[in-house]
Amino acid sequence: MKKIITLLLLAPLFGLSQASQSSNQDAAFIKKLSDEILTNGKAYDLLYELTKKVGGRIAGSPAMYKAEAWGEKILQQLGAPNVSKQACQVPRWVRGSGDFASITSIDGAKQTRALDVLALGNSLGDGKKVEATLLAVQNFEELEKRKDEVKGKIVYFNNSFDATIVKTFEAYGKAGIYRRSGPSQAAKYGAVGCIIRSLTSSTANDPHTGGMSYNDSFPKIPAQAVGPRDADYLWSLAKKSSTVKVSMATHGHFLPDTTGHNIIAEIKGSVFPDEIITVGGHLDSWDVNEGAHDDGAGVVHTIEVMRAMLAVGYQPKRTIRFVLFANEENGLRGGSAYAAAAKDKKEKHIFALESDEGGFTPRGFSFTASPEKVAAAKCWLPLLKPYGTDSMDDIGGGSDISPLNRQLQVPLCGFMPDPQRYFDLHHARSDVFENVNKRELLLGAVNIAGIIYLVDTYGF
Ligand SMILES: [Zn+2]
After folding, report:
1. Residue 359: pLDDT band with limits 50, 70, 90
2. Which end of the chain is more exposed for a tag (fewer CB within 10 A), N or C?
3. Which CATH class is domain 2-93+256-458?
4. Percentage of residues in the chain having pLDDT higher than 90
5. Which string of b and e fits 145-179 if b means at least 16 CB within 10 Å?
């Protein structure tokens, strides 16, 4: 039955008998890649090295350089014919030590209850304790209504994940605006500090950091994310008390920009060498964890796809680039430099895929591409279904490859693993190697290898 469906889908493109032959060859080759990855895959061992021997690797840090050297060495050791480093200037944000917040009084009665917090990435703080009355609001609309109450207070945003949204990346997208611009929205009305609910639906109390940016028109106030259970407590306390006082301190600051690198391995195409396919993930992570799912998984997926293709002796028709991007988390400088170079050199990029949604069980792919291209990709579903790909969505891609689309209209594809547990770990201390499953990680590489092979074979 499956074979018949494949035939019917491919028939309009190639004619029935040719489609049948191609489909059988494709299925056999994808199985070969899969067998190679599931039996000899190195992704899990490489993830161990990246997370445990390099560790957290925020842009500009000594660990970033260690990660770059590691990536370059591994790609060379695995036999990449051509490995290069592409320089870009990256920001160097330093958290400093001792992110701190505590409830100090409730309705005038002295209290000491520490809150588990992390300063938001790119936020600034001089380490001095700021003590003020808490103003807890659900969202920007409520802040707007209560703007006259904000002056001199610490604003708490109870921006919860919308539990009704099954696709958690959409819930993250909606709540994310509070992390990115909540602090400046609060500072606009005179707030002296800002705490947001961590962007997660996890039941653990781990706080989740992540990038924010200040609006230069307003004071750059300390900004933190609080763990979900402490967030629940703060919210309920604010509902039943007339005055809650909070003390907070952060130490974030910037050192001068420094030079980081995208690490790029390339296999030249044998038939259409000028047509470039990019597959990548980002090498940087936040400083508070090992960046195992975000985005160690994407890095080792990328390396594994290259390794497997070389191991089975695959000669691509088109040029395939395997890219370990610099500085996704707090600057996107790696992805921007990659697109700028592509534009400068007038390169012909036909497809770019990113794995940056974790190393969980594969579910599908998402696209930023014309409806015709997405429809063509959907014809490949039967070939990838045996390995877990069930859907191809028309909204998605990846941060690092997004400048390629914005500047050169390159079609984008994002690898989509199961998204239900990703935001339990994302940007939290718990994003560590131990929370990645070897089998799930390898299956991700199988599906990515499969779609890259199909794009290489048929174009896009
Ligand atoms: Zn990421």
Report:
1. very high
2. N
3. alpha beta
4. 93
5. eeeeebeebbbbbbbbbeeeeeebbebbeebbebb
Pick the CATH number of 96-251 from 3.30.1490.20, 3.50.30.30, 2.102.10.10, 3.40.50.620: 3.50.30.30
Q: How many whole angstroms from 369 Cα to the centroid of ligand 1?
A: 21
421 half-sphere exposure, CB direction, 13 A CA radius: 14
Q: How far is the CA of 112 from the centre of ligand 1 (A)?
A: 36
Instruction: For ligand 1, an ion, list residues with CB under 5 A.
Output: 294-295, 356
Q: What is the pLDDT of residue 97?
A: 86
Cβ distance 171 to 162 under 8 Å?
yes
436 Cα to the center of ligand 1, angstroms: 15
Place of tokens 């695995």: 78
Average pLDDT of the segment spanning 398-422: 98
Distance 21 CA to ligand 1 centre (A): 39
Both structure tokens of 39? 């039996």
Out of 15-19, 271-275, 294-298, 426-430, least confident range = 15-19
Query: How far does residue 292's CA lie from ligand 1's centre (Å)?
Result: 10
| Residue 241 alpha carbon to ligand 1 centre in Å | 39
